[in-house]
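Students often ask why inverse folding is considered easier than folding. One informal answer: many sequences map to the same fold, so there is more than one right answer. In these notes we will look at a single instance of the problem. The structure comes first.
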């Protein structure tokens, strides 16, 4: 069974209490210096410690996580360690954008590899987070959701120069980001990207993002960025005449990499205000100045939609695990009473929000109580197969219909492994079929018998040795051969032709004293194959150093469980 777990819902649809979003500007100086790193630690610690007091609902990092790109692993480890505090806070959504210093190449071309960023802050980091929506195809941009003030919000984190012509992935990132926005047309949205606003207006990368994703998508009401040294903010109108607040913050030109300054953006619906302040948890002090502390007007109801009216479905996210191949459990967070709740699925994403386009559907009981988790069991699935699904909820008329984003899962594959098939052929079950068991009491484990193509039910260890006969061979133990020009020893052994698919690895090790062992780095040479039996003879050589009296070898066999 595929099971969804670890999901939670924090909803207060009627609340008008102020809430806060925290912005962490460029942290590259903190992770580069062991003496300044404490500022980064203080930032994430303060966010978690003050989550309730400040009603912190979301935290975002604007990029330039590290200083030296992918070159110094310690910088990435420090950054990841700082964010562990947020990971451990119950359901605290956050985002970490990709900056130019976060690519693997110090030349900082947006078409460069960003594998190190992906390994530390890619989708796998958020796999268990119900608030995580997903990533772009290149895994460098992400979207999240959070709930505050009776509304569901969405956040888009775009990689540095995401839409630049210099970025070979710009077309697919644009299409992905627009598809996310299209799926949430009524969800107030914030965008964080590393380079957007300068001290005197938008930079080129910001203009590209504004023109492609902001001006024509009225749900985007705020854009956050760093990269450019300094502070700035301004309010512009999109194509619908609605205000968009643009904010720049980057303090790395200050002492100690930025003195720990971050932005507190407080949303005060009672007064239709957004108050922005710059605060350092390290100094426990506000940064003075008009650019560091200011207010922005916002008509919450007109700009964000009425409070207390979130979409019925605000998350849907599977966690794949389980024990049966033909069933799956999927879940969604439901914010409103809905008499009609369905989940649809298919082997492919139908890409539409029309019930009739999906061949499979399950109807759930009418949903009452709001702000809870609805689950559905999907049956009749194929083993080891991928599926797409979406949730649908409605109060009974088209105006109240809501669809979740598309989700995917893969059922468990319970087909026997080659090792299991091998044991089954000899009727070995229970503990007698364990890899380390010696079923025939000949001092050879089942794994060794499997690896060399031997019979695990016949005690024959004293009689077996690999032997070449004409154009063929008999299965058995490895044998060694010595050549004298140059002086070297080689080991010939039988292995399964499908060893990689079977999860088997064979490593020949050599020693001159039976204490220190060295693995051969040579690629095995295939000498003979028997396709009918599924085994082959290979040889691995190892040079013998001058003066060495003896040379020993051993075989290390590993079975991937």
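Output (designed amino acids):
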């Amino acid at each position: 069974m595929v099971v969804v777990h670890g999901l939670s819902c924090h909803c207060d649809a009627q609340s008008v209490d102020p809430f806060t979003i925290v912005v962490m500007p460029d942290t590259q100086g903190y992770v580069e210096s062991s003496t300044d790193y404490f500022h980064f630690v203080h930032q994430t610690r303060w966010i978690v410690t003050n989550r309730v007091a400040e009603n912190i609902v979301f935290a975002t990092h604007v990029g330039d996580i590290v200083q030296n790109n992918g070159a110094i692993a310690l910088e990435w480890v420090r950054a990841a360690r700082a964010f562990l505090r947020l990971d451990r806070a119950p359901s605290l959504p956050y985002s970490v954008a990709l900056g130019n210093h976060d690519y693997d190449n110090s030349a900082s071309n947006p078409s460069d590899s960003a594998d190190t960023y992906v390994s530390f802050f890619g989708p796998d980091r958020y796999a268990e987070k119900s608030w995580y929506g997903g990533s772009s195809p290149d895994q460098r941009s992400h979207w999240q959701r959070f709930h505050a003030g009776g509304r569901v919000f969405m956040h888009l984190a775009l990689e540095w120069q995401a839409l630049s012509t210099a970025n070979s992935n710009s077309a697919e990132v644009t299409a992905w980001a627009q598809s996310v926005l299209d799926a949430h047309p009524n969800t107030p949205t914030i965008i964080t990207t590393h380079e957007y606003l300068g001290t005197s207006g938008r930079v080129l990368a910001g203009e590209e993002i504004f023109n492609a994703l902001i001006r024509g998508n009225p749900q985007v009401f705020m854009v956050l960025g760093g990269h450019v040294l300094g502070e700035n903010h301004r309010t512009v109108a999109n194509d619908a005449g609605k205000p968009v607040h643009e904010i720049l913050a980057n303090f790395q030109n200050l002492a100690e990499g930025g003195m720990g300054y971050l932005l507190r953006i407080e949303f005060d619906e009672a007064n239709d205000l957004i108050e922005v302040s710059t605060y350092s948890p390290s100094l426990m002090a506000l940064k003075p100045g008009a650019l560091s502390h200011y207010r922005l007007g916002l008509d919450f109801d007109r700009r964000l939609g009425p409070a207390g009216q979130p979409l019925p479905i605000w998350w849907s996210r599977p966690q794949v695990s389980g024990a049966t191949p033909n069933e799956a459990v999927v879940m969604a967070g439901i914010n409103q009473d809905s008499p009609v709740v369905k989940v649809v699925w298919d082997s492919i994403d139908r890409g539409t929000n029309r019930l009739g386009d999906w061949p499979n559907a399950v109807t759930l009981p009418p949903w009452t109580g709001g702000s809870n988790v609805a689950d559905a069991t999907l049956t009749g699935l194929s083993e080891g197969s991928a599926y797409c699904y979406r949730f649908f909820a409605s109060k009974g008329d088209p105006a109240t219909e809501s669809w979740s984003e598309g989700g995917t899962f893969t059922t468990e594959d319970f087909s026997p492994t080659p090792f299991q098939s091998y044991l089954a052929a000899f009727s070995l079950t229970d503990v007698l079929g364990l890899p380390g068991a010696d079923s025939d009491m000949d001092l050879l484990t089942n794994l060794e018998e499997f690896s060399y193509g031997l019979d695990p039910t016949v005690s024959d260890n004293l009689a077996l040795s690999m032997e070449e006969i004409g154009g063929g061979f008999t299965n058995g133990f490895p044998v060694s051969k010595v050549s004298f020009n140059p002086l070297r020893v080689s080991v010939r052994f039988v292995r399964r032709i499908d060893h990689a698919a079977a999860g088997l690895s064979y490593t020949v090790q050599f020693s001159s004293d039976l204490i220190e062992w060295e693995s051969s780095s040579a690629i095995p040479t295939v000498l003979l194959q028997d396709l009918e039996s599924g085994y082959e003879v290979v040889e691995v050589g190892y040079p013998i150093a001058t003066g060495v009296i003896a040379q020993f070898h051993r075989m290390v066999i590993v079975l991937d469980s």
